[in-house]
Amino acid sequence: MTELPEFHELTLPNGFSYKQPTGLFINNKFVPSIKKETIDTIDPSNGEKICSVYAASEEDVDVAVKAAKDAFKTTWRHTSGSDRGRLLVKLSELCERDTDKLAAIEAIDSGKPFEQNAKGDIGELYNVLRYYGGWADKVHGQTIPVDDNKLAYTVHEPYGVCGQIIPWNYPLCMLSWKIGPALAAGNTIVLKSAEQTPLSALYLCNLVVEAGFPAGVVNIISGLGPVAGSALSTHPLVSKIAFTGSTAVGQIIQKAASSNMKAVTLETGGKSPLVIFEDANLEQAVKWAAFGIFFNSGQVCTSNSRVLIQEPIYMKFIEKLKECIDSDYKQGLPFGDDTVMVGPQVSKQQQDRILKYIEIGKKEGAKVFTGGYKVTDDEVLAKGYFVKPTIFYDVTPEMTIFKEEIFGPVVSCIPFKTEEEAIELANDTLYGLAAALFSKDITRAHKVARELEAGMVWINSSNDSDFRVPFGGVKMSGIGRELGEYGLTNYTQTKAYHVNLGWDL
Amino acid sequence: MLRTSICLKKSIPSLVRFYSTNKLPLSVPITLPNGIKYDQPTGLFINNEFVPSRQGKTFEVISPSTEEEITHVYEAREDDVNIAVEAATHAFENTDWATQDPAIRGKLLYNLAELVEEHQDVLASIESLDNGKALQLAKGDVGLVAAYIRSCAGWADKVYGKLIETGSTHFSYSRREPLGVCGQIIPWNFPLLMWSWKIAPALATGNTCVLKTAESTPLSALYASKLVKEAGFPRGVLNIVSGFGGTVGAAIASHPKIKKVAFTGSTRTGRTIMKAAAESNLKKITLELGGKSPNIVFADADINKAVQNIILGIYYNSGEVCCAGSRIYVQESIYDKVLEAFKTQAEAVKVGDPFDLETFQGAQTSQQQLDKILSYIDIGKEEGAKVVTGGSRIGDKGYFIKPTIFADVKEDMRIVKEEIFGPVVTITKFKDVDEVIKLANDSEYGLAAGIHTSDINKAIDVSHKIKAGTVWVNTYNDFHSQVPFGGFGQSGIGREMGAEALDNYTQIKAVRIKIY
Question: What positions constitute the catalytic site (chain B) (predicted)?
Fold first, then answer.
């Protein structure tokens, strides 16, 4: 229990100074948590504490949810789609104005390289908020012809209060994917940021106020999953819960949601395959594969963590992949060097977990082509949670590193002979988030794509998402789709109206 | 001056074409009656520049509330239209305008909406001066303009095709692609609003435009062209050619490189344009034409509100509204009460100087319109209809007409059948629902209708039976960016606003790839 100042005066490594809010953002104000509980957030590039912020308890979640419910009933449900849209577009413009600030906070809190990663995230934040701003006045139902005695129509109405729990790998992007469609569709929200990365969301709350959102529409709380996350997923006034994170926690949330039959959407883990046929453009396959596993230090739900390579080009691909790491995936601190592509993992816990998987891989007989260790040779980087980009090869389906999600810069390479074998290996997983394939033969590409069990397939690219195209997984990778128009439908429920025009009994 | 009945079969030019030997500057400083000073562009807007017309011709722009000249602007002819079409063609074919990420087009439209809002006072004032409408109405128009452009901005990257599942042997999908260069011809009753209804969906979907304003109201679109450039639209994407229907309009309708023509105006001209489109290159057409919309008051209506709505239905914008509720039908039992209240309110409508903020009804837009309306008033009197109130011009300077009500009309009278387009309305009794539906539908038009009743089921039932593109219940002239607007019958082809507007500016391409 600690008393925190309303703001910390922070100065970031690139010289940017600002006031970091510490409170829970409820009803357009920052407030301390009721029991004054706090969490510390660490800079993963050097292991040092950045600052503390207030952490929500179950009681705080209750306050936030009630604020959201109240705002929904009194103001937000009477705010027209056009007006909701304008607010979202205004918020996007403020984010664009503050790109460097938001990117800097994101970089220090999550370890993302400022220039090559965090700034791009703010671009996505801007795009997604604007995109949903454009949908807000276009959420229409249908009129359905039945006969002269009935006027039948549907309204796609909002749920009311939506609980949203986001992860630490793309804090602001994930925030935009959640709040954009929810607000556009007319809901109010209580969003819990990840405990490892609470800072940028709190700063964004300043922009929420500046944009003119009425109090209680957007509520953002920092907190621990088992405390605040759990409270949100069981709260009786929350009508819908949306979660992005691990499959294990997703399952807990789905169970918790059954308490009051909340609608649930989950975006969970993946072990996505990238299939490279021998007729692929090898150079491009290498570049996209590298992007798909080493960008964001491999902390991407859709990362192509299993690469299946057709035998004739197997070793050639692996050699070229290593060359690509050496030339294009410089590892280093988030600030200072604009060419750094790979930062640290987000926390010691994540780093340990990845290293453990690497040991298991070695023990189970997978061969290491490059990497496979914690970065200790550099004095500076040794202080942070860096893991060297790693290539395992001759991995087989029984191995743990073939099956389980590592969530780090570690790729498993597997050879295959035939198209059928590739499909079988690709689908041999409990997950089904994404898949990618490289081939110059478009007919084969479409045929194989149809066979792959995944929510998204990339043909001749990888991890090439667009905010207008639905994103989500099949099998254990989740329920529902985010982004695009589909993302909007996650946040509406259909109400059918029947008007009797003349049928008297 | 002796006013004689004008034979409506001839069209009489009401604007003097002033062929000056002195070059008209491309920008003219104007001080508006409310004190706002601004620079009025006078040129044609082509490739993001204001240019003189090639032949140097100009025409006069008159303020209808004073009959005084505001300025001249350059008058386009066929050669200027050709240049504009070349510019628009180049922008469509040879730049990435149509093929780039559509969110970029959306962003430009958002920028334009912001600029329109920033310049709302000037724009509303220009509109009031040029068109004669009350300033308070012009302000409302400009608000709708910004809102509509914003709405289309949001559509830009949401124009979907379909993935069509036909089985595992094929990969089949459809795309919605832009048409190319679109010719757009707009009227004078809502100059800037009509400009926005045309350009916003066309540009959002990746087309390029050549737009002709009405000869009586060229000013606001030219000012707005400055904002188009400032918003960042690339050159050639939007071009404005001020000029006359017989030359510029005709050139657009028959131009071989224009892929589509969109027209709002009279049914008669709409027919001409449709013929020209067919005879030239079969360009796509959408038309938003005339109306003689019925406004129906049932005995169970809230009478006060109904009277407000019938006033709004005919005197709003001086009756120069395509969907004006120009035939009022009142159920027998409340007819006398309604007529009395309506007469009182009509006489209370403040007609006068557009720049007086108390004014509701301004001037009719031109001498031609004034003459046409006055001649219909004469026709009504000759046909034996009773003038309940109004029935004449106000004063002799400025095109002002008294709010007019004709009663004791017969359905076959010309004033009941033909569109007058002014503050002149007919009012008739009816017995029951079936009778009024017949009366309402007895028209070659079908643009809008109004129903006033407290029985929603009856309202819905009647709405479904009335042959009109928009039916208003307990309101009138009540528009929204997302609600489609257009006519049945001879009131037009196609719908503007709503998602439906996008259909006007896209064509479907189906792609079917054999994969097994």
Answer: 288
